[in-house]
Amino acid sequence: MKQRKLGNTGPDVSAIGLGCMGMSGMYGHADRAESIATIHAALDAGIDLFDTGDFYGMGHNEMLIGEALKGVPRDSYRLSVKFGAQRGPDGSWLGYDARPQAVKAWLAYTLQRLGVDYIDIYRPARLDPEVPIEETVGAIADMVEAGYVRHIGLSEVGSETLRRAAAVHPVVDLQIEYSLISRGIEESVLPTCRELGIAVTAYGVLSRGLIGGNWQAGKAAPGDFRAHSPRFQQGNVEQNLALVEALKAVADTKGVSVAQVAIAWVLSRGSDIVPLVGSRTRDQLVDALASLDVALTPDDLAAIADAVPAGAAAGDRYMAAQMGQLDSERG
């Protein structure tokens, strides 16, 4: 497995990480046995970066990963965990809490659910508008000093917040959406990361399956949040699937899948970018891993740019209320 380094001060990790959110709902039902088998297959393939959030399935995802990794040598994998999102018993989203005392409480429960002594990269899921980022990062830094956390990461924050956070403690990576049809980070956030020596762990590299080559309009199952996502709505999804068809033409000329081209494109954007693939099955994982062997030539990249121009996607990546909460959207 090829390796990439997380920032100036972070660990070396596999060039592709496994995002585990979809194994605990969000995209509809997920098979528990297949999820665990997929995690094991990822380990066997050399993937050593596993990403989760303590609010995925209200703790279900952490317990699932803990079960899958039980008995695996702790120094052979990296756990990346997001925290801070509050949820109700009905699954509703209530806001964020990144106060220093909350940081330490979230972490205590995470360690218990995962069954580990430390987290490799710990990060607030979003910027808490009520808490200065310096206080949140300072609290995580306390946990680094105490040995419960190895490195600090951030998620979906903008350039100003990155600078303020990095002034308190080294930040190894920014987790943020980045794909052929979500390229907003290129203007300000990505250059700031590179200036500060912060890597990017890119989620949504297939835009939640939209550019995976298999999405069909009206496909969302019960419990699948894509049913309400702007890019999947009638009037938008047709335009977006037309982009996928154009991308498929490029993939066909190389004899690879659309998903492989889309992931390979993200990989090609720099050695400081690590795509997180959200494979829920072993078949999906095999397809994603093959992207590591897809070499994109300058002609390929030009053809991809023609097929999916920057800004060509219809609809925002989240609903309006959620977009308004993203510090990253402020540049």
TrEMBL record:
Residues 15-306 form the NADP-dependent oxidoreductase domain. It comes from the Bacteria. One of its GO terms (molecular function) is oxidoreductase activity. Keywords: Oxidoreductase. InterPro entries: Aldo-Keto_reductase, NAD(P)_OxRdtase_dom_sf, NADP_OxRdtase_dom. GO terms for cellular component: cytoplasm. This is Aldo/keto reductase. It comes from Parasphingopyxis marina. The lineage of its organism: Bacteria, Pseudomonadati, Pseudomonadota, Alphaproteobacteria, Sphingomonadales.
